[in-house]
Amino acid sequence: MKPSLAKIAPFVFVLLWSTGFIGSKYGVRNAEPFTFLALRLAIATVLMLGLATLVKRNQRLTGIQYLHASVVGLLLHGTYLGGVYYALLLGMPVGTTAVIVGMQPLISAIVARYLFEEPGSLLQWVGLVLGFVGVVMVVGQKINTNVPMSSYLAAGIGLFGATAGTLYQKRFGNGIPLLGGTAVQYLATTLVLIPLALGFETLKIVWSHELIFALIWLVFVLSLGAVCLLLYLIARTGIAQVTSLFYLVPPLAALAAYILFDETLSGLAVCGMAVVAIGVFLVIRPAPTPPAQIEALVRSSA
What we know:
Elements: H1 3-17, H2 20-30, H3 33-55, H4 63-89, H5 94-101, H6 104-115, H7 122-139, H8 149-172, H9 178-200, H10 209-236, H11 239-244, H12 249-261, H13 267-284, H14 291-301
Helix pairs in contact: 1-10, 2-4, 2-10, 3-9, 3-10, 4-8, 4-9, 5-7, 6-8, 7-13
């Protein structure tokens, strides 16, 4: 990826990923979660394998890389997406789900501090906290306590999957070919989801225009485009910088819902979006050049 494109990759990722809640909302209206997710990932597996075959260069995985890619897939796609889908199916509003999953950046940064020695600066920690506060401001008004506890459990499982998958990818995913590794992630997850759908669901699918649109969008835009960008960003930057981008997802999802579904967007929510933007800026902004490095640059140019 060219340097100029690398700079805009985080923003492209956020725009793509934020559409996932909209596609999921359409999807679970017409198919049960495991069934819909298995269908989505099965199609994505075939397409990703096709891309990896076309590229050919450096797409072969070693035995241990197959294992690591499979674990990442089960966590990042199966556990995270399955949890979110079931939370929505069980009646949890999108806003509440976004708040729960929105804790991922803060949890990931705390764990990464001890696992990967990524302490971060004081401003980065302030940015992480601000990002979470902003998310609560945006979607907190939509929290509904009249939903079953099982939906909160499902959302919590999704939060665990997103956090653990991101950390595992950072720890063990370096060096795994992007296309080949992602194809293995999808294949392993699909092979687990199919028995779950057969055992716990009716496999009923309503082939409406809504479902077809959601399937096409989630496969091509999310499973192919956004996921590849996510894995690229995890390999390229620190956990805090990558996961902080997820703070931007709930506000953008709320904005999309306002446009598409006429959902309310209060003044507090707009202020929350500004708080989120400030928080993310503090986390991902380039670190200032240390004085010693500046002095060395001056001497070298003299």
